[in-house]
Amino acid sequence: AAGVIQSPRHLIKEKRETATLKCYPIPRHDTVYWYQQGPGQDPQFLISFYEKMQSDKGSIPDRFSAQQFSDYHSELNMSSLELGDSALYFCASSSGGLAGVQETQYFGPGTRLLVL
Amino acid sequence: SQQGEEDPQALSIQEGENATMNCSYKTSINNLQWYRQNSGRGLVHLILIRSNEREKHSGRLRVTLDTSKKSSSLLITASRAADTASYFCATDNNQGGKLIFGQGTELSVKP
Q1: Residue A75 has what pLDDT?
Q2: pLDDT tens per residue across span B23-39
Q3: Chain A: nearest CA to B85, how far in angstroms?
Q4: How far is CA A81 from the centre of its chain?
Q5: Number of other CB atoms surrounding residue B10 within 10 Å
Q6: pLDDT at A81 over 70
Q7: Average pLDDT of A2-24?
Q8: For B104, which of A42, A88, A96 is closest by C-beta distance?
Q9: For a tag on chain B, would you pick the N or C end, based on fewer CB atoms within 10 A?
Q10: What mean pLDDT is reported for chain A?
């Protein structure tokens, strides 16, 4: 079965640079979530999209932005990178969205970002 | 953690033994999900239990939910070395579907 795809899997950036992370949800899933997991930490919710509209926002810095495109893939844009942004970034997708019962979230393999 | 506590934080057992991990949360929930994560890898969904369910089984996994105590437990029976991983509970508080994770339990199963 198709899973959530994330790219790139690994990314190394310098401070103050910009990074773009991509997420391709499971086909026919209409909701995408982004999470950040720091070293030894639990995943923290950043932002979510339902049918290409932002549906919820968590602890996402103003330096970060995201969007969901017409083909339902999503991109997380991170600017003015800081050392503390080094983390695993997960994308998850689900079906049901805001109108239905919230269902299982399936996570991608993550993008490991290292800011030097 | 935003949600609550998981205990124990670390658990070391021998292969064949059972492992029990507990999770507590703070707010009312729509459902609670358990995930597994091998070191530095992705989160693998194990089981989802809804707020109106009390117990659920899947293979060697048994999950219980006590909404009056705002707690859940995950039992892995007849553990195997391959079960070594971190286990997280995550709650859906019916606020747009986002998951709020517990701190995780690091399980080590020794052969």
Answers
A1: 98
A2: 999 988 889 999 999 98
A3: 13
A4: 16
A5: 11
A6: yes
A7: 96
A8: A42
A9: C
A10: 92
Binary contact (B48, A104; C-beta < 8 A)? yes
Q: Which residue from B minimizes the CA distance to A6?
A: B42
Contact B33 A97 (CB under 8 A): no
Rounded-to-5 percentages of helix, strand, coil across chain A: 5, 50, 50
pLDDT, tens only, B48-107 = 999 999 999 999 999 999 999 999 999 999 999 999 999 999 998 877 778 999 989 999
Subunit contact B97:A48, Cβ cutoff 8 A: yes
B34 lies within 8 A of chain A by CB? no
Mutate to test the interface with B, among A94, A98, A102 (most CBs of B within 10 A): A102
C-alpha atoms less than 13 angstroms from C-alpha of B56 in its C-beta half-sphere: 19
